[in-house]
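**User:**
If convenient, please work through this fold.
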Amino acid sequence: MAALRLALSVFVLMLAAITLSEGLRGVGPKRCCFRFNEKEVPRDRVIGYIRTSQRCSKPAVLLQTVAGRVTRHLCASPSAPWVKNLISYLDTKAIPGEMSSL
C-alpha cells in the first residue's frame, strides 16, 4: 500500500512540474517567417525592422516598409548580404535611446 501511495505521489508531482513549466512558456511567438522576400527592398521604403523570436523555427527579420500610405511587413533572411547592409544602415540612422515602432 505504501509503495502505491509513493508511486502516485511521484506521478502527481511530475505532472504538476510539467504543467507548471508548460504554463510558464507562454503562448508562443507573435510572428514567425516561413518564406523570405528574395528581392532587395529599397532603403527609402524601409522605416524599421525587428528580429523574430528565437522560438521561431527559422531566424528572420521583419522589415517594416511604406509605399504611399500603406505599411507592410516583409520577411527577410538575416544572413542575406542586402539585409545585413540594410540593418547596418537603419542602426546608424536610428536616434540613440529611441525604440522602433515595431
The mean pLDDT is 82.
